[in-house]
Amino acid sequence: MAQNPLPYTYYSCPCVNTSAPVPILAANRKHSREQPPTDTTEFDNEEQTFDSRSPRANLSLVPLEHLLWCTECHQMRCARCVLEEVQCWYCPACLFEVPSSTVRSEGNRCTRSCYNCPICTSPLTINPMEDPRQEDKPEHATGPFIMMCPWCNWSSLDLGIKLEKGTNVTAQLAKIRNGRKAGKIQDAEVTSPTQEQPLSPLAIQHSSIDDAEAEATSPRPDMLSTDHDELFTRLRNFYQQQIVESSEASMFGPSFSSTDGFSSPSAISRLLNIYTGKKTKRTKPVPMREALSPSEGLHIHSPADDTDSLTCLSTTPWPDTTTTAQRALQPGDHAPPFTSDLWPIATLLRTKRSKRCRACRTLLARPEARMNYRWRIRTLALNHMPKLTLLPLATTTTSSGGMPTLGPDLGTPAHIAQRASLSAPLRTGQTHTYLLTTANPLEDVLSVTLATPPTTPGRVGTRVTILCPQFSVGKNSDVWDEALGAQPAAASKRRSGMPSGMPTVGEDGAQARVAEAGKVWASGRNWTSVVVEVVPGMLPEDASEEEADLEIAVFVRIEYETDAAGEEKAVAATAKEKREEAFWCVLGVGTIQSTFA
Amino acid sequence: MTSITPSDGRRITVNRSRPSAVSAHATSPHTPLSRSVSGSLYNSPTATAFRVDDENHLVIELGARSIRVGFAGESRPRCHLYYSPDQLRRIGDYRQYAPDYDARSRKRKRGEEHWARDGYELWRPDLRDTDLSFVGERLERLLREVEATYLMLDSRARKVSLVAGAQLPRPLLEVALAGLFGVLQTPTVTLFPASIMAVVGAGLRAALVVDIGWAETVVSAVYEYREVATGRTVRAGRALTWAMSKILDDDEELTVEDAEDILIRSGWCLSDSTPTGMEKEMVTIEIGEYSYEISRKELAEPIEQVFFAQDSKTGHSDDHDKSLAAVAYDVLLHLPLDVRKLCISRIIITGGPSSIPGLKSRLLQELNSFINAYGWNPVRNYGSVYRTASKPDTIPTQASTQITIPLEPTKITESTTKPSPELPVPAVPAHLAPQEPDFVRAKSASRVGPSPISGVVRGVHSLGAWTGASLLASLRTRGLAEIERDKFLAGGLTGLLNVKQPAGKQGVGERRSWSLAAWT
């Protein structure tokens, strides 16, 4: 089954509980029947634990690598507790930067020659139509050009499109498309006369009734195109006209309440009228009327339209109809039913964004404006929060069973063996042991408290025991301190900040060792491993795959003393500030094997 | 007054630009439109000239199955997103992009009750078991994605118009507003009811809107931009896709994606305008690696069952048992006469499944046959007096009055009461006498304009609720329900409605009272 590559650790951003902007929503969250609130900041409701299987949890769980860190609030910041500002726009295909004025005027797609295949979405190439023998001189290639999909062999010839130039495709395509639309209208014009003269209301009355009768009795092709954009333009013009007419009429009316100041000629004449005392005839404002003719945007349903589309449907085989995915990709909710109407998709632009903390507006990340991948500012949570990793305790490996000296490096052969054993399914009722390693990126000694519900929520009820839930992790001091030391055990002994009760573990004898409750399994310069025992519960017969995936929610609370926030270093040397953080983590363990399979 | 000649209206653009200011077509010099309808926020005339606040005016249509987001003044939304379970993944979960990933193999709960429940819809109309905070968080995530992928705003959206059904439950509305204020940081949100926006999008003032949605179909009669009557039924998109999922095999249901695919690619509806012989054709449908041979008639079957209630027996009185045409007829029946005659010739069929070819013709045709069969008599059965349906024998067809529908059942009064002998019997009954000329009406007609078409069953296409709202927003129309961020965040919707401002304390141009218009 598909599963996230193990091991994985997700962090739950505490903003779930604090970001409810509306009191009533907050109240709802308090009394929500399905999901108890996961209060992490205050430890007042200890019974309520984090349920990693609830749909809400999926929205709040983030891998550590995706989290930012606010240096002012001393909290992690996920995608929903940051504010984003666009730094620049660029096309991901041609990597050209697009100025904001162009984005405003031309829209959110590349206006150069970047297009995607409407069938399979891969980028289109623009090739000359000449025979391939002349390919050796592509710079001398002369038109016509066509757009080709290298993946599915779609080409713009399917639409009958040939381009004169190989560059500036957008303008050429727009021209072709508009030409086709205009062509359709002209065809329709030939068959039926158009209304060219401005109509008096009476004429409209007659013509509209005539129109309606004609359309009701004998459907004929509309004299105007019924294209969506065309209709929109006509409707907008119609509404604007109506508003102008009704407001013009009301200007001479008694009301002074219209909000147009005194800057218009009609308003001045109205003022003059007041002072000269001439009585204008008060006309009632003409109410806005509805659109009456196709030229005003009215589009009457005629059964012939349905007959046409049904005839098209019956003559088109299944592969030539568009799928939901293809329709969704066409820009602007434009859903053509047949593949012959699909248009190449201009590539969507992308943005580089700077991110600010939602609470204090501190800049958390700011990319460089140029087209490169560098950042000016980026404060990652990775550098400020302990990293938790869960690995199976390798009981079968014959090499030194302990941890490597330089911290949890996952590239060593022993760990490759461990990773292989991760994919093995878990058996119900059997005790599996795991190593939970906490790595400390800070330059202060952490004291860590872990907590987890004894059985996982839900029907499966896996029993989880952390053998040593309280321990401390050494500070992230200079790597050379440890490397130059004779022995890791000695190095850890020499550490000044280490509490005296900390058990030290050597490499020898690790293999035959049995995990003991209350004792740390192994530790190094800035990491500590403890043993977690997992006894998978019974999988019900109708269990879903989500239930078979075993995840452990762990509540992590860390305390450390650090230099005070005051910047003066003289003061900082003496004044220590005690900080405390708490959050939920979700550790992926593996898949429970179904006994019914 | 100008008529827009084809050459004038044919300025086709790529239509990707955001039109900023409106340019009115009028013959006489007049005040620029942008000022005359602008809000009264800045009351000095010079201040209004410098306002550029229609930049980043967003229009959002929030549905139970999909969301449309775009800029006001554009004819099409920038994006139309359907909800899917993939949007509920954790960040950093890229399993869906793995080559061997197959969404079809996922185990789902089966049965109609669970159909398309998990992830495909944002809410159900029944909110009792809905976790509202989950809906809110999901909506926030969606909006963030839309903003980052399609809108890419360079500054905050200044205004947002939210198009939603007037039936949207208040808690959901609150959640949606909280999401909009939270993610887009907009100062105001204007609410527009979807049915009225569909009417605006058709260029009308009164209409019968049949909005075939996801969870339910809402039939609403709109008169002068007000909803005056509604009827609802669960015969809508969800029920239709469920019926479609059973089309290949009665026991094995398809996935939601496959069912929707079959529906939009080959679904159709029988009607008078069906080409001859279409029902007997065979189609080959390909799903994944499999292909199936199926007749066109079978493909039309789910629509017959779900929308036209072929499966339910007559005589049921519940709205959910009636066909769409019957619900529409009932709504029309309960309308006042003047409203009815306008609505009946302005029937707008909109919503996702309304694009199924043949459906509009069929609905209009069914409605017509209802009217022909029953007239406008709400009583179907007079018991022992008349066993047959009270079908009027003659329908007076007078081209001059345009009203072709019998308005009153006439038979009963004629047969049961005898004219008293004292009174002289008129040679021609009053209802058959020619209409006397009405001078008042003739005068008003010359001033107001033509009398609108009424009385005939007629369908009108609408550009859709989103486009209607985009039109309205670009004309700087003020919505009735305009919600300000600060006040909403302070008290929520209930707080908004309870605020009572002391008289004389309000600032210039501040709103006097709060209303939620159709949503109260």
UniProtKB/TrEMBL annotation, chain A:
Keywords: Acetylation, Coiled coil, Cytoplasm, Cytoskeleton, Isopeptide bond, Phosphoprotein, Ubl conjugation
Tree of life domain: Eukaryota
Biased segments, Polar residues type: 189-198
InterPro entries: DCTN4
Subcellular compartments: Cytoplasm, Cytoskeleton, Microtubule organizing center, Centrosome; Cytoplasm, Cytoskeleton, Stress fiber; Cytoplasm, Myofibril
Family classification: Belongs to the dynactin subunit 4 family.
Quaternary context: Subunit of dynactin, a multiprotein complex part of a tripartite complex with dynein and a adapter, such as BICDL1, BICD2 or HOOK3. The dynactin complex is built around ACTR1A/ACTB filament and consists of an actin-related filament composed of a shoulder domain, a pointed end and a barbed end. Its length is defined by its flexible shoulder domain. The soulder is composed of 2 DCTN1 subunits, 4 DCTN2 and 2 DCTN3. The 4 DCNT2 (via N-terminus) bind the ACTR1A filament and act as molecular rulers to determine the length. The pointed end is important for binding dynein-dynactin cargo adapters.
Name this protein carries in UniProt: Dynactin subunit 4
Organism encoding this protein: Microthyrium microscopicum
UniProtKB/TrEMBL annotation, chain B:
Ranges where the record places region Disordered: 1-40
Protein family membership: Belongs to the actin family.
Highest taxon, organism lineage: Eukaryota
Biased composition (Polar residues): 14-40
SMART domains: ACTIN (SM00268)
Protein name (database record): Actin-like ATPase domain-containing protein
